[in-house]
Amino acid sequence: MTIYGYVRVSSTDQNEDRQMIAMSELQIPVERIFIDKVSGKDFKRPAYESLVEKLTSGDLLYVKSIDRLGRNYEEIQNQWRILTKERGIDIAVIDMPLLDTRNGKDLMGTFMADLVLQILSFVAQNERETIRKRQREGIAAARSRGMIWGRPVKKPPENFGEVVKQWRCGSLPLVDALTQTGLKESTFYRRLREFRLTRGRGELSKSKPFDSPITTRILR
User: Is 10 annotated in the active site?
Assistant: First the structure.
């Protein structure tokens, strides 16, 4: 019999220390602890798939809690059945001693374990759906308050008009114009178009026609 451990957190910025401590207390070697940092919505996870390939009949798999195994009710049930009944692997849920397939292999023990598994699987999925619902409600509330999502818009400096004039007259190279405005080239041209459509139209009308790199290439 070989003992393995499975650890999962939902994202790379979450900490798995609590689960790793539980595994170390069981003296499971680090090389036999498989860690995923992905959602528990399904079982398409690189570390979990590698673990399943290594498991053989008679092995023992530890997980800290059932929601670390997964958060999808039907898939938890299915994976549990495949591992324990088809592959002959024992699973022990550290936080729930009733979910230890080494114990109670008689009819009553199996019934109790299956019942607890169904309840905890339901709780795990329900918690995931509750979290997602709260996230959606939080985003909706933030948007209703005018909060903008995504990267902030890079605004041109107050002297943008003057920089544009110098650039268009040829006295200021594009690279220097970008440095002075703090804009990337693509952003510079976007802000220039916006500038021409608003307060800069009159100021730029006396200058030579606007040429973007694309326009210049076509004319050539």
Answer: yes
